[in-house]
Amino acid sequence: MPELPEVETVRTGLSRLIIDKNIISVDFDTPKSFPNTNADIERFLLNTHFIAIRRRGKVLMLDLSSGYSLMVHLKMTGQLVYRGEESFGAGHPNDSLIGVLPDKSTRVTILLDNGGTLFFNDQRKFGWMRLLPTAIIPDEPFMMKLGPEPLEESFNFSTFAAQLKRRQNTSIKAALLDQTVLAGVGNIYADETLFAAKIHPKSIVKFVPRTKLKLLHTAIKEILLFSIEKGGSTDRNYVNAEGKRGSYIDFAKVFRKENMPCPVCGHAIIKIRVAGRGTHVCVHCQKLYKETVK
DNA sequence: CACTTGACCTGTCCGC
DNA sequence: TGCGGACAGGTCAAGT
Length: 294
Description:
By secondary structure, the protein is of the alpha+beta class. The chain has seven helices and ten strands. It has two domains: 4-144, N-terminal domain of MutM-like DNA repair proteins, CATH 3.20.190.10; 157-182 and 185-281, Orthogonal Bundle (Helicase, Ruva Protein, domain 3), CATH 1.10.8.50. It has helices at 4-18, 38-44, 141-145, 157-164, 172-177, 187-196, 210-229, and strands at residues 23-28, 50-56, 59-64, 68-73, 78-83, 106-112, 117-122, 128-133, 270-274, 277-281. The strands form three sheets. The protein has a four-stranded antiparallel sheet with strand order 1-6-7-5, with helices on one face. It has a four-stranded antiparallel sheet with strand order 2-3-4-8, with helices on one face. A two-stranded antiparallel ribbon has the order 9-10. The longest helix is centred in the C-terminal third of the chain and has 20 residues, at 210-229. The radius of gyration is 20 Å and the shape is globular. Residues 88-94 have low confidence and may be disordered. The protein binds a DNA duplex through residues 1-3, 58, 73-77, 105, 122-127, 142, 166-170, 174, 177, 179, 186-187, 235-236, 275-278.
């Protein structure tokens, strides 16, 4: 599912593909997918061009020359896929997960002046795309609440520890998934980083030793960066801006590895439920901290 | 305020 | 073969 590395991969792809391209037309299925008025669309979207593609947490911002931006959240099954004139409708036989576009999951279709098309697909309709003034994006309630960017230099260990102070009595996994603690980690990278730090996901935050939290902080940075190198994780639906898969999942140690041997100790990885999510853990390697350690 | 649970959706898989 | 139900998991609203 699109988490920070997947959204970042889409961002770099779109930066390469649609910057400076002019928007000729936009078409969408329902207002839920694109809740803007026709007047706003005509004034601030049509006949403007993309000047920058930015990311904050799992949110994408496609900045336009009109002073407005398309803000996009892919949620679980969202895709932002560009098809150039040459590849239009053709798909990619080798590494594309998707075929001819538009398909039944297509919510928004944006036609560009170079003959290319930007598709916003979303099978489960949880995602959204909307047009709003670039300047007010930071004031949006969702953006206001977001925690620090884990890959920024300023996200050092003391920042991480300070953020966790607000979630002392919950599980460490619930804390990692909380976007106000840090922005961009979802189910895959929560499981993978906790495995790397040898912390059981059900561990209560206040009982996790500082040394383990330091390992976790380092693992977050390293694993997110590594996944970006691999183009993110394609578990089911995720594809990049060209409709292609990411390969991080091939390197995952525990995610979707239930009943398989732990790569460190060989014990079987089990799947449990933590914070309402499917959670993968090696109970032999990952220690459960539920009370003060002596 | 801190924390947990259910709702939002649709496609897929599993058991009968 | 079809059908019901569980499951997938990001975020928010409503619950304790």
